[in-house]
């Protein structure tokens, strides 16, 4: 019995390590290519494929060269700018709306809440074109407004998530505050917000990741290269220097590395947040 | 109104006033959503429905066509092809679910270094699609001397040939027609037959996104159920089938619904890696819609496509919801 368990455990580790290699290898391959000279990437006539990952001499120059055509800092600034306003807008508006759907009792509340859930079912393609036309008529194309302004009107998914969380908070605290003459907004800010910190952090993090990863939005609304986000800039780089693989991989590494770092530091919030969102069924 | 009909006692009017105040407060709190959904969701949905019956090319005002867009769509070869390509990608859904759950179960077996493995498996799903698409373009490079996958495949195929020769040498009884064989190279994204499976392979690299949700669900399965099963002498297979999977079925259900909608909105990697090629084999529905809207500027046509997409997803969701009573178990019902 004990022996069988040890063997089983051994197989689990073996499988995990093998899978870890498979999952990590694309990243390693990217890093490896980003440090190679062309003559190391493309074998000469008669030479076979080489799995040598890190070969001497390493070509660190790929990075400065890539960053010359791919203004990383500029794109990073643009991306962070959009992310920041999305986070502020989404957290503020979604918690206001979620409060209205959970901590204030009013007639018709649940019926309207079902409407909120229903809007989640609408594929974005249905609204994309009219919204595009709307922004075009407003003269907002080529600015960050189309990517930022909608965030200030609440996002159905996060409203839902926060509402579920707010519902679990005890009602006595807000009742006591109400008796003391505290306004509803005051209750949200002073009582609910401190208690809901983990949920709000999750919303912030997910919103951040969402707008960091967004490709379609910037693709549709931004046309000036100086305003490009990282994703869009990388796409332009790929279009222009499609054969410069070491340069592309260097740019890719530079884009991916911050995410890996952020993820390492926020892992716990992430996992907790996913447990919050995933358990709704 | 009720207060006006009955003679207003002080208490009733107080209650009515309190209720009205709560209604106003509630509406004020949700007002961002009301405005936002009118401007960015409900309004656009109606506009899109109207435009789907119009010829609209952005620069000139919309021109009413009636059902012409829909009639054209039904006769449009590429519409059907994009629908077929998208339907093909549904294979990815069960694959992703099975692999995601399997990975989560492996990790849930309280192994040492779990956080490290978890992070590693999860990472690919937080990489911007542009970056992963670019990386996989490079990995899929069809030149066996350059592309990672074809390079590895070439090595494996050579090794396999050697093994085959060895086996046939050792065991002459093996029939000559029986051979160990691996193709030395696969055209991946370059051929119409392998392009879609290649994209699936790339997507499965990002399976960690689902895995982490299953993992959270697995950790919520009540431990006492397993203990009871142990006492009854249940095998681990029985425990998986009768405890684990039913317990996480609400999460699987959630993943099926979101995954289904996701397949229909499949866009970015095809747009970046293949732009629909080769031979339109990766022309997915959302990609063709995007091309109609922003490359051919046939906004009305694209809106008609969006509405068909909407109806298909509604029907699919309804079907899954209907079926859910049979296979999704909720805690409260147990």
The poorly predicted ranges of chain A are: none
CATH architecture field of the largest domain in chain A: Orthogonal Bundle
What number is the mean pLDDT of chain B?
88
Number of helices of chain B: 16
Would you kindly provide a brief summary of this structure?
The complex is a heterodimer of chains A (281) and B (334). With 281 residues, chain A is mostly helical.
Would you kindly provide a written description of the structure presented here, covering whatever features stand out?
The complex is a heterodimer of chains A (281) and B (334). Chain A has 281 residues and is mainly α. Chain A has helices spanning 2-34, 38-41, 62-69, 72-102, 109-119, 124-138, 145-148, 156-168, 171-179, 184-195, 197-213, 216-221, 230-240, 245-278. Chain A is globular, with a radius of gyration of 25 Å. Chain A starts with a helix and ends with a helix. The mean pLDDT of chain A is 87. Chain B is built from 16 helices and 2 strands. In chain B, strands 1-2 form a two-stranded antiparallel ribbon. In chain B, helix 4 packs across helix 15, helix 5 (92-108) packs across helix 10 and helix 6 (114-122) runs antiparallel to helix 10 (208-219). The two termini of chain B are 44 Å apart. At the A-B interface, helix 1, helix 4, helix 5, helix 6 and helix 11 of A face helix 2, helix 5, helix 6, helix 7 and helix 8 of B.
